[in-house]
Amino acid sequence: MKANSKVAKPRAKNAPAGLDAGVEAKANGQLLTSKENLEERLRFETLLSEISARFVNLPADLIGSDIEDAQRRICELLDLDRSTLWQVCEEEPGSPLLLTNWHISSGSLAIPERMCAGDFFPWTSQKVMAGETVVISKLTDLPPEAGRDLQSFRLYDTKSTVSVPLSVGEGPVFGLLGFAVMREEKSWTETVVMGFELIAQIFANALARKRADEALRESEARYRGIFEGAIEGIYRVSLEGKLLFANPAMAKILGYDSAEDFLRSVTDVGSQVWANPEDRARGIQKIEKEGVLRGYECLFRCKDGTPVWVSLNTSLVRGPDGKIAYFDGFVENIDERRRTRETLETSEHFLAETARIGKVGGWEFDIDTGKQTWTAETYNIHEVDPGYKPTVEKGFAFFTPASRPIIEKAVRRAMEQGAPYELELEIVTAKGHHRDVRTIGRADPAHRRVYGFIQDISARKQNERDMAELRLEWNHLTRVLTVNELSASLAHEINQPLGAILNNAEAARILLTQAGDKRQAFSEIIDDIIEDARRAGDVIRKVRSVVKKSNAQFEPVPVNTLIDESLDILQNNLALNNVTLQLDLKPDLADVKGDRVRLQQVLLNLVTNALEAMKETPSRILTVRSAMDVPDVVTVSVSDSGAGIAEARRALLFRPFYTTKRNGLGLGLSICKSIIDEHGGQIWVDNNPGGGATFSFSLKAWREGSA
How many domains in the chain? Predict the structure, then answer.
């Protein structure tokens, strides 16, 4: 449909092979009226000439990609937004027009995986398949019967469009070439439309040549199979299964000494040669229906009874009465190939599935040329199409600015020195997604190549981040629970200075009612209030340090000081529970490197557990010990005089959610273990010979200058 609102202007079914003298005369008469139109025509004709020359001897396997490149160039030259090419599948007569090639500017609605022109543009496709060029300058020009087309044009933001038929010579239309503008309405000039028709002719000729080339290759492969089969074995057999003749190769395939031996020994092919009667029945049915049997893989039985895989290429020969007289066949021994193929297919499937599941892609590149080869999963990890041509530099470009210098240095060392590398870095895919990857490379100087693999470890890294956050929440919860268990002791400790402050305030009030100079008394009262307030503040700060939620801060920690601070927090708790404290701290004990708050959490948890274990015992003795029983290893032990731990439970104590307390959550000791593990230490429990249990943990000693 033209911009002047006329319904789809019919055109000749076949676009002209070029702009002949008559067309040029008409074009000159219409388009030379303005310098702008002339310049547009010259640029367009130059591009058409380049595209035409490009497709003259273009290999068939490049036609698809070059069509899309031509679509892109035309859209860029004419400031168009979209070009689509639709084809009828030649293997399916009467099949719909399917979208096969396209160029779309950014911002357009994504195209479905399978798009049929008849579903979206039934009116337009019907006109084009009838040999008409459909020109639409404004959507309001569409007739009422094009309602579905109008909906689809609006869906894909189309303002103006041209659709041209694809055909060769007097042959039927087998496709549609479309161009569209999404931003504004466009009046299509005669020159542009004629150019589109010429482009359609170029594409149609190229696609027809591609189809013919593919058909020729298939035919050559088919006849080559017949020839190879003839080299292997030739036979003729009647419909009843009587062997009429066979060559020596045929006899050899089945383990007979000679063709004569084969002919003499085999009286019924169906029962003596075919291993599976069902295969023979299917083969005969197929050949009766189609007249030929090609590449029919089945099992034959050798003279000694062993099966052998063969490929049959057989044709039937009819007698004068039209009935089947016999079958002529060519047989190829594919036993080894078949078994190798099955093994290879199993192996390839295994490797592909493990690579897909593990998100592992392989790669290699030539040191001299920089040309790189990727496996399928590597394309998936980088989110690029299989047609993408990777190089070393292109591969580097996927890495983030922070990661790129690292990988470049590693690859350079591999190329120059043969040094292998293993790194965990970050890339940005072609679709803009950030991914954590693990990449390993190894050089092969003898062959001037570098090999390696890349693995998407984004999920693992995210899990690590999630686990770190969960561990932080977990630790914080345990510290809060610890404070909860100490609440009675803390309340008692805070009440003492608060009570003293209250008493001093009452005393000050009484002094105010009395005559005389009381400045000295007031000064002493104020000093007492300040001291008591400081004591209460110290208690609050201790509690805050325990429940504070923060990431680990590793620094030198004096172990004995940490023990004293922890026991100071628990001082009233010990007194309230009538616990006798025994300290056995090694003087001049080496520091450890760790997070003070988290190590204090471990000590508080072990001591509160010990107090809990001694609630039912008359003698309550808590022993805290520090030592260096092993060089450069600091050990801290917390012993109680309780009932001890049953042997069956010892192995379960450090598991999450396992508890021996009536109201316990089973998190404390599990978190203690995770904290000690985080510090590179060990934690364990032993029963005391005289009763009770001892929980111990060890950490590597820290010395000045050590890591």
Answer: 4
